[in-house]
Amino acid sequence: MTSFALSKPLLHMQAVSKQFVLHLQSSTSLSVLRNFDLQLMPGECVRLSGPSGMGKSTVLKLAFGNYRATAGHILVRSTEGEMVDITQANARTVLHLRSQAMGYVSQFLRVIPRVAAIDIVAEPLLEGGGTPFTPAQARELAAQWLQRLRIAPSLWQLPPATFSGGEQQRINIARSFIKPRPLLLLDEPTASLDPENTHTVIELIAEARAQGVGILGIFHDPVVAQAVASRTVAMQAITPAL
Amino acid sequence: MQPTELSGATAARDPHINFAYLDERTKRMIRRAILKAVAIPGYQVPFGSREMPLPYGWGTGGIQVTASIIGPDDVLKVIDQGSDDTVNAVNIRRFFQRTTGVEVTTDTLSASIIQTRHRIPETPLREGQVLVYQVPVPEPMQHLEPREVETRKLHALQEYGLMHVNLFEDLARYGHIATTYDYPVLVNGRYIMSPSPIPKFDNPKMHLNPALQLFGAGREKRIYAVPPYTPVESLGFEDHPFEVQRWDHACELCGSNESYLDEVLMDDQGGRMFVCSDSDYCGKRQAASLAAASVATVGLGAA
Amino acid sequence: MTHIDTLAPLLRVQNLGCAYGARTVVRDISFELWPGEVLAVVGESGSGKSTLLNAVAARHTPSTGEVAFALKDGDLQDIYAMTEAQRRMLARTDWGFVHQNAADGLRMNVSAGANVAERLMALGQRHYGNLRTQATDWLERVEISPSRIDDRPDTFSGGMRQRLQIARNLITQPRLVFMDEPTSGLDVSVQARLLDMLRMLTRQMGLAAIIVTHDLAVARLLAQRMLVMQGGMAVETGLTDQVLDDPQHPYTQLLVSSVLQP
After folding, report:
1. From residue C137, how far is each of B133, B173, C115, C133, C149 by CA, in Å?
2. Which stretches of chain C sit within 8 Å of chain A by CB?
3. What is the longest distance spanned by two Cα atoms in chain B?
4. Are C239 and A92 within 8 A, CB to CB?
5. Per-residue pLDDT for C1 more than 60?
6. pLDDT for the residue B197
7. What is the CA radius of gyration of chain A?
8. What is the mean pLDDT of chain A?
């Protein structure tokens, strides 16, 4: 990771609102977030808490650019040190940020047919121009990560479509952690994991934080939340607009 | 094959038909096409092909070209597969005798116009002679690209990759380039041309030939030309260059090792012999060796 | 903005429109494409997406607008201001076009090897041995057994023909590839294999691509960006995952919700 000032946030969400307009349901409007503010500094692990339906996943998806904000600004620090407002940025810029500046672990692994587990994990290292890794080196590193997350070597050459939920989740995690990025967005990373692997994930988060990575996450498991979160943001129900 | 009695013969011209059968306007139109063809060596010039008294596929293109350039003082030779004696050659020659009354010959060197189907005479031609080829399919890329709109573009833009696809296919299928006749050539470094179904053996003769070479395709309505002393190069690959055919035999009648040989079946038991395809060339060689032999005998006798 | 914006686009389409008399089939489409980016143009039948692709790929002259491509020397040039010879040269070297029906993009009466090597011969390569080696190499890359190099494509299955088409197009290392529904009509497993290959090749070769498809899953798998067309107009555009997960336009929402999940 490049050196950066510890005083600048990695993520700054300013007065962000998100409203879904469901055109197929007579254009019903669903307000999920209103005037949401958040700043995430390097080394922090901020936990979004609250009952389901409060918009926790939405916050992560907005930060990643997967959802489009209805109002407000979402500033992400690029590896060059600039604060980029992804609500205004073009697709190319956001893709670049995703490649270098932020990672996202969704709740579910989106399975690509035919690609072996080890290649899925290795892929982030080979993406983009000027990668220093050869395919062989990337795969070797991927193997190490798979081992750490206790994926049996017999599974490495198989596409994960037939894996259990927990195995898929671990592949997802390996894929996100293999390429260190300053900002990490985690959506229920331990949801399908057994205690052993849960513990590994806690370790990974701690290691990342020690390196200055900032983490924004949703952790339902109170044990995990306790272990990893340095701060908690409680999400509240939005009162419907009058 | 001995020269027949038609050498030097003239026949009475039929006064009811215009000289050389075509009307003068048509001849002018064809000459304009020829001029354009000569100006752009290898380029296929469309022309208004007329109905001729023989069907398509029998040399109507070549006949129209000859008819447009022939004059009363010309001496005409007509060959088909190298021979002056085949049905085609005889009929076409008779046609011109009847419509022009010009002198006809089998002697390659004394002819001013030679119309040919599928061969170039072995005897080297000289300046001032015209060789008229009968062409069935003028477009060298036709069987790979049947659309004329497209082939015209390819020629115009000099996009000839397709020609090499053809040769590539031959190499892939047979291990060698299997095209043995109508072998495509590059004329004057610009246009790729079909030389008509002459054996590839004859291709080198086209290169820097002192004679004017004209090509007529009656059914397809195209005329093209190779002016005298034009470079003509047969296509090939760097590692599979163009090669002419070779025989293990010599001509059994005249002993030539250098001419294109026809294989003639002698009987029903598979007996065969190889003889020159060019009847005039072969005949001259035989006459020369007979003369040499008689001189030797006379010399011996005198001794 | 970050330094990445100073890189010039590979392709710029501005206010592109195609009309047949009074009927407007493509209306006012604009977008840019950078090296290595894959854009999916998604829409249903009649949306104008294929016409758009053909207009951008110089196969169909547009009625309005401009298409500019950055030649190797770097400058963006209006492709319709070029001579036909230049456009054809471009189409043979720097561009690829993968047809929906492989037979449209292949010479069916010529061997697989000749199909793959044709572009090289068109560029002047004249060494049979080298041509054959390169053809063999590319057949392997698209997972066609090299033993089939002398076989004609009419003896190939649909999936193999499609892969052969891809090899034929990519052998000259084009920087931009156009694909018109490259996987439609193929069996699911065959599709998967082809998509995987396309994904790998576009990444390995840093290809920019415009893929027309009606299949949202194909768009998600292959493209980083997406353009949704309806009635000839671009109704929504953006990152593929964003358009699919957070569709804004009513039509996009309809499309996304209509897809069956197995």
Report:
1. 44, 19, 13, 6, 10
2. 1-5, 34, 36-37, 192-193, 195-196, 199, 203, 206, 220-221, 224-225, 238-239, 241-242, 245-246, 248-250, 253-254, 257
3. 75
4. no
5. no
6. 94
7. 18
8. 88
